[in-house]
Amino acid sequence: MAKKKPPPKPRRKKVTLREDTQLNQKIIDELEELFMMASPKTLMKSVNYIFYQYLFYADVDGYPSEFKHISEDFYFLQKFFAECSERFNEKP
After folding, report:
1. Would you say 44 and 81 are in contact if contact means Cβ atoms under 8 Å apart?
2. Tens of pLDDT along 1-58?
3. What integer pLDDT is reported at residue 46 of this predicted model?
4. Rounded-to-integer distance, Cα 15 and Cα 77, Å
5. Chain centroid to CA 41: how far?
6. ∠ at Cα 38 (37, 39), nearest 5°?
7. How many Å apart are CA 45 and CA 88, to the nearest integer?
8. 24 and 17 in contact (C-beta within 8 Å)?
9. pLDDT for the residue 1
10. CA distance 64 to 80
11. How is 46-68 classified by DSSP, letter by letter?
């Protein structure tokens, strides 16, 4: 009997940036601009809609091989928008 492969480790990587860097400020500026255009709650709804439309219209056999990673990315993006909504005192 063949040995089972251990499950792959999650793709999520922790990114640690030094405080007060130009990159940090650029990221903050971009997020502020994004959230001025649309609230985190609105962005979360849009991402949900796009993802569920993809699931609905995609052929089950036609899902890409990296579908599990796409789903994980979606989960982390959803979690990020939920956290932002909470900080903006929005109801999810």
Report:
1. yes
2. 556 666 666 566 666 666 667 777 888 889 889 988 999 889 999 998 988 888 777 7
3. 92
4. 15
5. 13
6. 135
7. 16
8. yes
9. 54
10. 24
11. HHHHHHHHHHHHS-GGGS-TTHH
The letter for the amino acid at 33 is E
Residues 6+ apart with CB under 8 A from 72: 10, 11, 12
pTM for the whole structure: 0.61
Of the candidate ranges 14-18, 53-57, 68-72, 85-89, the one whose mean pLDDT is the lowest: 14-18
Q: Are 48 and 78 in contact (CB under 8 A)?
A: yes
Cα–Cα distance, 25 to 31 (Å, whole number): 10
Residue matched to tokens 């903050």: 28
Q: Amino acid identity, residue 16?
A: T
Measured distance CA(47)–CA(81) in Å, rounded:
10
First-to-last alpha carbon distance for the chain, in angstroms, is: 49
